[in-house]
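Notes, Module 5: Reading structure tokens.

Key idea: the token line is not a picture. It is a compressed description, and you learn to read it the same way you learned to read a sequence, by spotting repeated patterns. We will look at two proteins. The first is printed below with its tokens.
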Amino acid sequence: MSSNQQQLPPVQLTAYTIAERLGAGSYGNVYKAHAKTGTREAVAVKCVLKSQLCKAEADNIITEISLLKRLKHPHIVEMKDFAWDANYIYIIMDYYGGGDLSRFIKSRSVLAEDVVKKFLQQLALALRYLRSKHVAHMDLKPSNILLSSPRKPVLKLADFGFAQHFSDEETATKIKGSPLYMAPEMLLRRKYDAKVDIWSVGIILYEALFGKAPYKSETIEEVLVKIKERQPIVIPRGRKLSEPCRDLLTRCLKTNPEERLGFEEFFEHPFLDLEHAPSEESHQKAVETVAKAVKLDNEGDLEGALELYTAALEYFVPLTQSEYTPSRKEALRKRTMDYMRRAREIKNALHPDDDATALPSSASLEVSSERSPNQVLHARTSVEADQFQELAQLSHMTPKLATGLEIARAAEEYELEAQFIVALEKYQAALGILIPALQSELAGSRRRKLLHAEVSKWMRRAECVKETLAIQEKVLTDSVAMSAEAPDAKTCKMQ
């Protein structure tokens, strides 16, 4: 506000005491406040000065309130209430003490890829929910992504001031959002659709990995010049990224919206692996899958039970790792250990002489193991073997794809032999071939379905091998420093 403007009227809420200013959202400042009665819970209050709203802005506020009343998702801020007086409209929301993603990135300069993946999974889950409601956010940026707490942050998508209903076929022309994160087609005043959110996700991903947005400039004018000149975004090679991560980043940041990832491709991308991302949905799938495994186990169908126990563990492991409530985390950990133990027993019963494919004991979750939890079924079941063989047959006329499959199988063998450095190199080489191949496969085809399943598995195994190597290096470093015998190596410990 300039010096000659009238002083803003005081912010007053009958039921709350206004505390410090947290920041500014679209159309208003956001304050921390405390309830005057009861537990004096903290809330965040967005205060919108009515006298400064034009008709279009007032309509946007009404849309924001309407959306927040209906949107209920673990990774979207929850509106508790709204109120108004002669001066302000108040939107009262849950308070999150972790600040926003912009501050989180700045405090660390850049984020580790596994941290980025976790946040991106949560953002993608929120966006998938929004698309199911035909809603586009239109202002995705790190400062509009809140974190639940500083130590164990859970992402919460906020500020729906520019959001609107947007079906898959709709287009628009009005400029909305923040220039640094705004899709080129919007800034160039051309028609755009809901895929502008995909571009913004790409910018957020870039900023998290490299510490600054790709079009970062001293002035807005410089930003606009870069975008209008359609300067391509170059992904720096200085930082080592996994091939899946680099592929997703590149495809989100296509300046031509026709070449950019669509929502379904985004949600199905192997880097995200939303199928196994911790959520109520994945928990339900884990429970349903393991129930079927137990049923087959009791009926004596050990091969089928083993396959389903493995599928269930693919859900239970990330759920256990992401749980923050101590009692629930311990319950999940014990449950996961029980299923792993039973899977090992079945594996040994089916393959008593096959030591190389023996499963890790449940104790390996607490102390150490020669194998990781993601290797619970490293040796393929008969069903998995048949599926891989089918994929290989469908790919024999595509030399590059066939080569990628051969390299990935070699990586599996090296991992089984605990040659982790070579295994990781092979996995990365294979994924560098297979992920682009997957994206070019015909949607809905049998080969695409089989390839997607294999690529997802190999990505998880590659990450596990990477973690194993990091832990081994730490153990070696500690042992040198302490001049003592190193403890048992830990690989992919389930927490």
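Here is the second protein, with the sequence above and the tokens below, as before.
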Amino acid sequence: MSSLEGRGLSCTRGYATLFRDVSFRVGAGEWVAVRGPNGSGKTTLLRCAAGLSRANAGEVTRDGALLYSGHLPGIKDDLTTEENLAGSLALQGVVAHGPSITEALARAGLGKRRHLAARRLSAGQRRRIGLARLMLDPAPVWILDEPLTALDDEGQALFTELLSRHLDRGGLALLATHHDLAPPPARELRIGA
């Protein structure tokens, strides 16, 4: 069973305390919404949970492979849509064959743009590469920072569907989001003033 837990996390940047003594637990089939005002440390908390940044105090434990997606889409402008998706999966050790990549991109609304350089995509289309990645990466632990940014209503609905399926399969998610999603979060974790 997958799990993600943070205990007593505190983080400062320079002289500013972003958050202090934050704890959370996310179990299989659950997602937790991280909420707070801009600059309150949501991204930093997610990076600590993913092991990409170090908290000043506290500990994070995780059981299960991790898929992390930051608030920027994390794609290379010179690579095609298809190459970006294949590359991000390969970095995770996920082997995806041409037909599965083609199908995921089509489902994400990028079928006709799979051979375009990413620099020619809109912000929402760039985000849709991430939706295709969610379809193909089997990692049970999702840590996602504002996954709905730049997505239109159709893209947001697809994300909601992918999240629901992930949870139904026993996956879990820790998401920083300002949006209300279905299914509703198991808990909200509020940080900052």
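Summary for the second protein:
- The first strand starts at residue 3 and ends at 13.
- The mean pLDDT is 95.
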